[in-house]
Design brief:
The strands form two sheets. Strands 2, 4, 5, 6, 9, 10 and 11 form a seven-stranded mixed sheet that branches. It contains no helices and eleven strands. By secondary structure, it is mostly beta strands. The model has no long low-confidence stretch (mean pLDDT about 95).
């Protein structure tokens, strides 16, 4: 069992930056693939980024590639999402999630593979 707590959301102007953090409880953080997803009003939850257990491999949605960077600190049990060049269409509730089981083979973008989820943090980008 792991508990995830996101922070760092807020209101930012288009073109600005934010860094989201997700702190995990427990001593097995390094055994989870970690992902970030987002959900805008009246839209389905969508994949944003994922990072492998050791932090070596990363995957991004096309919509954020080149603007967002995922990273993790397995000592601090924290995963980060650095967001730059933000656009109004990035406005959403952002969730971090932990996947204890999936191999790094494409399944890391599938929300159904993640067993644990945070409560979400709101990111609003004004135009």
């Amino acid at each position: 069992q792991v508990q995830l707590v996101e922070s760092g959301g807020g209101l930012v102007q288009a073109g600005g930056s934010l860094r989201l953090s997700c702190a995990a409880s427990g001593r097995t953080f390094s055994t989870y693939i970690m992902g970030w997803f987002r959900q805008a009003p009246e839209k389905e939850r969508e994949f944003v980024a994922a990072i492998s257990r050791a932090g070596i491999r990363k995957r991004y949605a096309d919509s954020v590639k080149g603007r967002f960077t995922i990273s993790r600190d397995n000592v601090k049990n924290t995963v980060y999402l650095q967001m730059s060049s933000l656009k109004p269409e990035d406005t959403a509730v952002y969730y971090c999630a932990a996947d204890p089981n999936t191999s790094w083979d494409g399944g890391e973008a599938e929300a159904g593979n993640y067993d644990y989820w945070g409560q979400g943090t709101q990111v609003t980008v004004s135009s």
